[in-house]
Design goal:
This protein is an all-alpha fold and 145 residues long. Helices cover 85% and strands 0% of the residues. The protein contains 5 helices and no strands. Helix 1 runs antiparallel to helix 2, helix 1 packs antiparallel against helix 4 and helix 2 runs antiparallel to helix 3.
Amino acid sequence: MRKDIKSLDVYTESLVFSNLIWQICSEWNYFVCRTVGIQFVRAADSVSVNIAEGYGSFHYKKSLKFCYYTRGSFEEVKDWIRKTENRNRIPEEYKNQIDHFISQFLPKLNSYINYIKKQFNKKDIQQETPSASSTSLTNSTNLTN
């Protein structure tokens, strides 16, 4: 039985992080929110959304593709963090949480990607490995020729 996506740390932590970014941006004035906040929230949201979409596809290649999209969104989020920190828009009380997520997320995402790759390779090996009955049929056919 397949586990619920909420059992994936990489997903749940990115979801918590996107809610943190939402909370920060929702406190900004109209100008900052319209010019930076909306894009920052969309980038943060797309990190967990891409993981969820790949997880829900039930296809290894598609899951990998969405994990790679997640990496791109993560890099975009890091860029927005640099910009907003330089513009003094990140309150001090949130900086430790943000730094923790940034330092921990990519290794977890890479671990999840490696897990998916291993599962995909297992599937390929199982499909390529002939079964015992087909091997014996091939051998008996070769003997009769």
